[in-house]
Design a protein that fits this description.
heterodimer, A: mainly alpha, 3 helical TM bundles of succinate and fumarate reductases, 4 helices, B: mainly alpha, about 65% helix
């Protein structure tokens, strides 16, 4: 049952990513004013609660979707139980580390 | 994976990664599944690169601008297009897989009357429509990249 729940979350994060990344890209590249990659635009977005919320949601969904996908591929290789446990802890550790680093950037860069 | 008392232990995966490409007569959907994995890896690699590039902000405006200048070379533009194409493919094929896993596109069960048509072939039109949509969107994005580089 636990694996089913994780799989359903994989679907939910996939759908979420489709709309969040698609919406973020459209807003930024097609409906935004000025150069979205300029220092002033990037600093402005980092100071905006709305943009930061979208960024953090994309991070959470993306990290879960990506790492759960990789976990699924690795689990296909008939691992012993102990290796599965190590894999699970490693995936969670990598996810938290990447999330921490990615959130640290906009908060501490400006 | 750990098997509970009610589950049978899964068979050992003897083919390993070679099974992604060949283990008998795979149908087109199996290769789409393999491509789904490869595009997933590609998108993960892009996210890693994106985070490294974003990290250059931590060293100030000069570092950020030199990173952006470096990433604006034509090689990275081609890479950007490939990321877009991979995103389109991964998203639309993922939608198809999701619908099929949840049983929405399987159709009604039919009696096994000769010549037998398996479920995979009954769902084939959906696959062709999906591939046409992916090709159309990928070409549209390519044209947009060429017109607005």
């Amino acid at each position: 049952m636990r694996e089913n729940h994780l799989k359903i979350l994989q679907y939910v994060t996939g759908i979420g990513l489709f709309f969040l990344v698609g919406g973020y890209h459209l807003l930024l590249m097609h409906f935004g004013k000025g150069d979205p990659e300029s220092w002033s635009s990037v600093a402005q977005r980092a100071a905006s609660a709305g943009w930061l919320t979208i960024y953090i949601l994309i991070l959470i969904f993306g990290i879960y979707h990506g790492l759960h996908g990789v976990r699924g591929l690795i689990l296909e290789f008939s691992l012993p139980d102990r290796a599965v446990k190590v894999l699970n802890y490693s995936i969670v550790f990598v996810g938290i580390a990447v999330f921490g680093y990615a959130v640290y950037i906009p908060i501490h860069a400006f | 994976m750990e098997a509970t008392s009610k589950q049978k232990a899964p068979l050992p995966n003897r083919l390993g990664i070679k099974g992604w490409a060949w283990a008998g007569r795979y149908k087109i959907e199996r290769y789409l599944y393999t491509l789904h994995r490869l595009t997933g890896f590609g998108l993960l690699a892009y996210v890693a690169l994106h985070l490294v590039a974003n990290g250059s902000r931590l060293w100030g405006q000069g570092s950020w601008e030199s990173t952006m200048n470096f990433l604006s070379n034509p090689g990275f533009k081609v890479g950007e297009y490939l990321v877009m194409a991979a995103f389109i493919y991964h998203a639309l094929n993922g939608g198809r897989l999701m619908l099929q896993h949840l049983g929405f596109t399987l159709g009604k069960p039919k009696p096994p009357i000769y010549p037998y048509v398996d479920a995979m072939r009954r769902r084939r039109p959906l696959t062709w429509v999906l591939l046409a949509l992916i090709m159309g969107l990928a070409i549209y994005v390519l044209v947009a990249f060429v017109i607005y580089p």
